[in-house]
């Protein structure tokens, strides 16, 4: 996503919904009506393979990239 780009996507109906927001290369679940708000509390994500999960409504948001991620460490 390019800088300055933003979009919102509403999934669901009047109840059992989530609003997914993208802005400046980041994504988050801005609002939902799930009981524990775990997806909302996760906040913005922007680096692969970060994820946001909303289990009550079966939503998984994953950051992907066409370029392989840099490795921080290799463990044997």
Task: Describe the protein.
Helices cover 7% and strands 38% of the residues. The protein contains one helix and five strands, in the order βββαββ. It has one helix at residues 38-42; strands at residues 6-12, 17-23, 26-32, 51-54, 59-62. Strands 1-2-3 form a three-stranded antiparallel beta sheet. Strand 4 and strand 5 (59-62) form a beta hairpin. The radius of gyration is 14 Å and the shape is globular. The relative contact order is 0.19.
Q: What structural keywords apply?
A:
76 residues; mainly beta; two-stranded antiparallel sheet; globular
Task: Profile the largest sheet.
Answer: 3 strands, antiparallel
Percent of sequence in beta strands: 35-45%
Q: Share of helix among residues?
A: under 10%
Structural class: mainly beta
User: Tell me, what's the shape?
Assistant: globular
Strand order of the largest sheet: 1-2-3
Order of helices and strands: EEEHEE
């Amino acid at each position: 996503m390019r800088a300055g780009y933003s979009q919102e996507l509403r999934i669901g109906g009047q109840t059992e919904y989530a609003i997914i927001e993208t802005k400046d290369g980041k994504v988050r679940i801005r609002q939902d009506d799930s009981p524990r708000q775990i997806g909302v509390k996760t906040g913005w994500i922007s680096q692969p393979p970060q994820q946001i999960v909303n289990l009550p409504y079966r939503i998984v948001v994953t950051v992907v990239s066409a370029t392989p991620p840099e490795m921080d460490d290799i463990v044997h």
